[in-house]
């Protein structure tokens, strides 16, 4: 783009456009879940989301204990642990998948007529 004092013979005006946007997004967050926490959440979701036989929290805790899993704080699973992981994981998932909010706050279109060089 040329910003000198030369005026092109076919250009009679310059158009300046200013737009101010507000963007609210959750796509900039980095996951603070460990791979083990992700694995536990996904396993619990599989048990809870089974269409034919959804399981209760107590039964899921028994299965996880039988398979040798421990809570993130290294204790045996109880139904309250399973409920907490499931509930907080769903809240986190909803927050991370939320749609972006884009608002156009101000728009300004300004026409400037350049001075011709004498």
Outline the structure in words.
The protein is α+β, with helices and mostly antiparallel strands and about 120 residues long. The chain has one domain (about 15-110). About 35% of the residues lie in helices and about 20% in strands. It contains 3 helices and 2 strands; from the N terminus they run βαααβ. The chain has a two-stranded antiparallel sheet. Helix 2 (about 55-65) packs across helix 3. The two termini are about 25 Å apart. Residues about 1-5 have low confidence and may be disordered.
Helix content: 25-40%
Radius of gyration: 29 Å
Number of domains: 1
> Helices and strands: which structural class?
alpha+beta
- What would you call the quaternary organization? single chain
Q: Strand share of the residues?
A: 15-25%
Show unreliable segments. Answer: 1-5
H/E series: EHHHE
Could you give a short account of the major beta sheet? Answer: 2 strands, antiparallel
User: How many individual β-strands?
Assistant: 2
Going across the major beta sheet, what is the strand order? 1-2
Shape: rod-shaped
Describe this protein with a few key phrases.
rod-shaped, two-stranded antiparallel ribbon, 118 residues, single chain, alpha+beta, 36% helix, disordered N terminus
């Amino acid at each position: 783009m040329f910003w000198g004092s030369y005026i092109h013979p076919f250009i009679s005006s310059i158009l300046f456009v200013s737009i101010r946007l507000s963007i609210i997004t959750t796509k900039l967050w980095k996951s603070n879940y460990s791979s083990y926490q992700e694995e536990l959440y996904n396993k619990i979701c599989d048990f809870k989301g089974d269409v034919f036989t959804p399981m209760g929290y107590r039964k899921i805790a028994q299965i996880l204990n039988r398979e040798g899993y421990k809570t993130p704080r290294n204790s045996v699973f109880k139904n309250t642990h399973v409920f907490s992981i499931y509930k907080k994981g769903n809240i986190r998932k909803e927050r991370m998948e939320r749609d972006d909010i884009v608002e156009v706050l101000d728009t300004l279109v300004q026409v400037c007529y350049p001075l011709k060089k004498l």
